Request: fold
Amino acid sequence: MSTPSIPFIDLQKQREVLGAPLEDAILAAVRAGKYILGPEVKELEAQLAKRSGVKHAITCANGTESLALVLMAKGVKPGDAVFVPSFTFIATAEVVAWLGATPVFVDVTEEDFNIDPNSLKVALSFAKSEGLKPVGIVAVDLFGRPAKYDQINAFAAENDLWVMADAAQSYGGSNKDGSVGSLAETTATSFFPAKPLGCYGDGGAVFTDSDELAQKFQSLRVHGKGTDKYDNVLIGMNSRLDTVQAAVLLQKLSIFDEEIRKRQTAAEYYNAQLSDVVKTPDINPDIQSAWAQYTLCLESKEQREQVMAFCKDKGVPTMIYYPTPLSSQTAYKHYPCAPGGVPVSDRLSDTVMSLPMHPYLETDVQDYIVETLRDALAESASSTSLKAAATAS
Ligand SMILES: *Cc1c(COP(=O)(O)O)cnc(C)c1O
Reply:
């Protein structure tokens, strides 16, 4: 029997669902000729702000620069310490280093893969003892699930720190206090194609209720412009969203709520079929994840290798997000880390594995994935017990 071809993320199915209106919208933007900051960009920003429940959404060129725009607006500089989780995508810490500031790595919890408030506390004392000036926290909503903003915001307020949400994976998510975009003073997101809300290239946005910060973002994304672009009041950059990408995102927004519901259904189905044999992600009724990824924790690196090889053989794609904590990366390992290190991040990097996740996962495909994974786990268990028996004899 030939192995099926299962996509890890199915953007072609989504394109078919959106159909001709999507292609028409792209062509209309091309024909209208307002390629930079055209009317679709303004319309998108208005819709994003409204659905997130914040005053301002300002788009930019990509998710990495959305993070940088916030740090620049906050005046982050050498000598400043910014707390970031060690278990995340590299961009979270990269932008801090760009500005010459010091990323301080904090551990995460097994429960939600996000910043551990206890690790944050010890990291803060440590940064101060190293002579750094703690200024802010970048909380990441890894795999789509909002971080513990009630605790993080309270801790930040007590210690005179700002909080930025790195919501590159969580746009479309929410918690009992509101939608992603409104859960921290500033929120940065990405419209990279594989994110829950993705365009057909690079894109990003920042969200805030602050008029002052919004004005800075508008200026910084166009070379620090003042009254016009040849009046430069800040040291800025060029980071704008293309009008064509805004046209794509407006179409995708029309089905986005439905897509988040479908991702939730797919996640619940996986959990129901798998939680008796492997550690499945926590589903909390108070927290809506955007389900950028559906991530399992296996028992060991060896078991993960065996399971992934078995799945690959059967045509089930799996991915590791992320194989190395940032605090162990070559370019970053000299930066400070919470005292005691980041044992949870280290363990997760060795044991996590993500399964195909997108809104168009059919039940029969999911059944095949589940069955394959259950077989893979059973085989790895029997090979482990064989090995144990061999060592014992
Ligand atoms: C994707 C991602 C980014 C960067 O977004 P780009 O649009 O690729 O620059 C930043 N942080 C996290 C957590 C991400 O997943």
